Amino acid sequence: MRDTDPSGDLPLILLEWYDVHARAMPWRTPPADRAAGVRPDPYRIWLSEVMLQQTTVATVRDYFQRFTARWPTVVDLAAAADADVMGEWAGLGYYARARNLLKCARAVVAEHDGQFPADHAALLQLPGIGPYTAAAVSSIAFDLPFTVLDGNVERVMARLYDIHTPLPAAKPDLMTRAEVLTPAIRPGDYAQAVMDLGATICTPKSPACGICPWRDPCLARRNGTAAELPKKTPKKPKPIRHGTVYLGQRADGAWLLETRPDKGLLGGMLGWPGTDWINADTPRPTGTPPASADWQPLAGEVRHTFTHFHLMLTVIHAPLPAEADPKRGHFVAPDNFRPSDLPTVMRKAYDLLR
DNA sequence: TAAACGTGGGG
DNA sequence: TCCCCAAGTTT
């Protein structure tokens, strides 16, 4: 019976699987605790969800621990200095998330009395909270019946219903299917269960269909198409860009750094002064250094790949005179300089000099 | 709608 | 080495 008309039992089957197989995570309230009445902390759910955007669980763990140790509540985070939050986020990527994280924390304090609203529409109005995160916080933190649609859920739905429309065009259809399945009971556990299923069983390559709790109703498994779903529109090739950064250090050890403008690539992050990064097949002549000094290029170069281009970075360094008055940037005393405050591409330039 | 926006790990 | 991928949002 369930083979031919399984729709009514699908959510229940997955929740039973989740009760046994839920992965432990620092921000997660296990299903047993949740059943005993333990409520998740909306601050920690929100923080983890923002960190998890386009980022693996393994990468997020350490950042989450450091953030919650340093800023235990949203009120603490709202009071933090911008540079401290950006420095703590360094290396996680997609730095607009960190800028919006602070804006959101301050909005929660200013507009919601320091408490995240248990209201999907209100959450959606906050900076950095889009359709996914609003649904995730609503369901996981407040157990409201909203449906998350992330990469995992898209993949699971595409396979469960054998949908061959390529992403992102298929999203509305996948969302409708996901919404129909979302149960009125335990929507928070259910949301995490579908994502866990996608992360551990219904994986992008070689899915473990044999041990999947939804193996019987899954149409793609029945049709042998699971491994090729979801279809995606082809990606555009990445061009190569070239640029130069200037690593200047005074005799007292202070480094010449700049805080990048809030908009654009690495916005709001600490970095080395340098040239624009220009599309080219070969390196460009170096630009104008931030201060007069005996600049010398380093052997080798920094290679780094961003979302939409490859970068070849020439690194130039110089000792700076004590009276140097740079046109750009500011000096950071060695006691205040943490290489870990730099975004990865800038840290690579520092590592090349070391 | 499409492009911009990071990084590290796995195959 | 290279390509794909990860619990997306903003413009």
Q: Mind explaining what this structure looks like?
A:
Helix 3 packs across helix 4. It is built from 14 helices and eight strands. The chain has two domains: 7-228, Hypothetical protein, domain 2 (Endonuclease III, domain 1, Orthogonal Bundle), CATH 1.10.340; 240-353, Nucleoside Triphosphate Pyrophosphohydrolase, CATH 3.90.79.10. The chain has helices at residues 10-21, 31-35, 42-52, 57-70, 74-78, 82-89, 96-112, 120-124, 131-142, 151-160, 171-181, 187-200, 219-223, 344-353, and strands at 240-250, 255-259, 270-271, 278-279, 296-297, 302-305, 310-320, 330-332. The protein is of the alpha+beta class. The longest helix is centred in the N-terminal third of the chain and has 17 residues, at 96-112. Helices cover 39% and strands 11% of the residues. It is globular, with a radius of gyration of 24 Å. Strands 1, 4, 5, 6 and 7 form a five-stranded mixed sheet that branches. The structure holds a DNA duplex (11 and 11 nucleotides). This is Adenine DNA glycosylase. Its EC number is 3.2.2.31. It is an enzyme of class 3 (hydrolase). Its cofactor is [4Fe-4S] cluster.
